[in-house]
Write a structure and sequence with these properties.
This protein has 522 residues and is of the alpha/beta class. It has 14 helices and 20 strands.
Length: 522
């Protein structure tokens, strides 16, 4: 990505660092998140960022081995913005003072009041007609800056953060104690917009530019070798397949693995679309018996994911040989997959769940990975899909996980439970479409619970499964809120599922947000 202006986010372990990247991508600024313990002076010189952001984090600058940025971050002459812990570590390194305790911790909503000084970093802030000139922000800090470093001035204060907004205009260093990346700071996006403008970014990160760059990289990586692409029918793998096909044509063969864990009628829809509309070489691998046979009786979610990942590799290896010795395997891996599967901050944040398509390939495969979407968030993949000409009806499809219905069936996997789940999910999605809600929802599905409950149908007793409906709104899947269906919709949908799907006698609605939950149940 060397031809794009680049911003580096040094991650100190905040759980919302990814939101900083989202705000910047929305401004057409290319950025990457790298953990503090992998960023040294040599890395900075090679990366050559046009600006740097220090994220927040759970550590204290007083702790032994506290996370620190490399010294050259302050001497390479680029603008730097410190967020929360990023502000504290900036002051600590540059000659200020940080203290803990003394009743100055702040958690949650706070209000920042401007000082008499102004700076372009705050353009659009402190509207005197709103909140008496105050701005709402989101604080989450125990330690606080008690003395700013030489050269810094104060531009905003809060009751427990006397240096809530500071800047050293001469060196283009900026530091705030709050989190502008979260929606609880209503004008946070404006602060990031001001920062990148002051840093001289022109907004050259567009999907048109990315498309050309990705095609060039694919051709350089692949040469004249053959590539197989794991096609699931979801947006990610579909966009990856169309992009790679544009780059290398018939060197690409798509392998659609029907693992028996798909939604009702999905295999037929995917095969028809790619064979009829894109004229790509496509292998429809019916491997349902292989996958379900290996999963039957398995209940641990990590074992499910890893079993599915291992079997995918076996199937791809078989077909790589069949197409005449493919050298590469293409996948639709996204940036959130990488973030969730890896402890990105080198310790302070944790691995949430394994993704079957992250972590490289076994040496025995003899294949190398092609992952042209690895730097993208989901909404950027959709934008790239539109750039490539995929139909809106396909780009707008809800995400569907690689492990399929296996992770929507908590507890043991059986063929009977999968069939019940498949039919219930079809009714739920049909209801959403009939009510014109499909495009308002990021993702919707049914989870079949590992619980049977007593019911009554007609004059008889039933003892059948309970299910949970799940529908969320989101931008990129990193955070999500449940969709506020009406009680009338939920009642109508529950009635249809119980009447039309034998094996379910109780329907619930999951109103958990992410965090604390994940979108999928496993």
């Amino acid at each position: 990505m060397t031809q794009h202006q680049r911003l580096l986010i040094i991650d100190f372990g905040s759980q919302v660092t990814q939101l900083i990247a989202r705000r910047l991508r929305e401004l057409n600024v290319y950025c990457e998140i790298h953990p503090f313990n992998r960023v040294d002076d040599a890395f900075l010189a090679a990366f050559a960022p046009k600006a740097i952001i220090f994220s927040g984090g759970p550590a204290s600058v007083f702790a032994d081995g506290a996370p620190m940025p490399p010294a050259s971050a302050f001497t390479m002459g680029v603008p730097v913005l410190g967020i929360c812990y990023g502000q504290q570590v900036m002051m600590h390194c540059l000659g200020g003072r940080v203290e803990r305790g003394h009743g100055t911790a702040e958690f949650g909503r706070a209000f920042v009041t401007p000082t008499q000084q102004t700076h372009p970093i705050l353009s659009g802030w402190f509207d005197t007609d709103t909140l008496h000139g105050r701005e709402q922000v989101w604080m989450s800090h125990g330690d606080h800056v008690s003395e700013i470093a030489p050269g810094f001035q104060v531009y905003g204060t809060s009751p427990n953060a006397p240096f809530a907004i500071t800047a050293d205009p001469a060196r283009h260093f900026y530091a705030v104690q709050f989190h502008p990346e979260v929606h609880h700071t209503p004008k946070g996006a404006k602060l990031y917009e001001n920062f990148v403008r002051l840093a001289g970014f022109t907004g050259d990160w567009t999907m048109g530019a990315y498309r050309q760059d990705a095609i060039a990289r694919i051709r350089a990586q692949v040469g004249d070798a053959k590539v197989i692409c794991g096609l699931s029918g979801g947006v990610d793998s579909s966009v990856a397949a169309v992009l790679i096909h544009e780059a290398i044509g018939d060197q690409l063969t798509c392998v659609f693995v029907d693992h028996g864990l798909l939604r009702l009628g999905e295999a037929e829809q995917v095969v028809t679309m790619f064979r009829d509309h894109y004229n790509m070489p496509l292998i429809h691998a019916d491997e349902a018996d292989l996958f379900i046979g290996a999963l039957e009786g398995v209940s641990d979610p990590e074992v499910k994911r890893k079993t599915i990942g291992r079997l995918f590799i076996d199937v791809f290896q078989k077909h790589a040989t069949a197409v005449g010795g493919a050298k590469f395997l293409a996948q639709g891996t996204l940036y959130p997959d990488v973030i969730e599967s890896v402890s990105f901050s080198g310790g302070p944040s944790v691995t949430i769940k394994s993704h079957h398509n992250v972590g490289g390939l076994p040496e025995k495969m003899g294949l190398k990975l092609v992952e042209p979407l690895r730097e993208l968030f989901k909404d950027e993949v959709r934008a790239l899909g539109r750039e490539l000409g995929l139909p809106d009806s396909f780009i707008g499809r809800h995400p569907f996980p690689g492990p399929g219905l296996a992770i929507r069936c908590p507890g043991e996997i059986t063929r009977e439970k999968l069939e019940i789940l498949r039919r219930a999910d079809a009714v739920f999605i049909d209801q959403i479409r009939k009510h014109g809600l499909y495009d308002d929802i990021w993702q919707a599905f049914v989870a079949l619970l590992p619980v049977k409950t007593v019911g009554v149908m007609g004059d008889g007793r039933t003892y059948d499964y309970a299910c949970a409906l799940r529908a969320v709104t989101s931008v990129d899947g990193m955070t999500a809120d449940y969709y506020p269906f009406t009680h009338e919709f939920l009642g109508e949908t529950a009635t249809r599922i119980i009447n039309e799907v034998q094996g379910i006698n109780r329907v619930t609605y999951d109103i958990t947000s992410k965090p604390p939950g994940t979108i999928e149940w496993e």
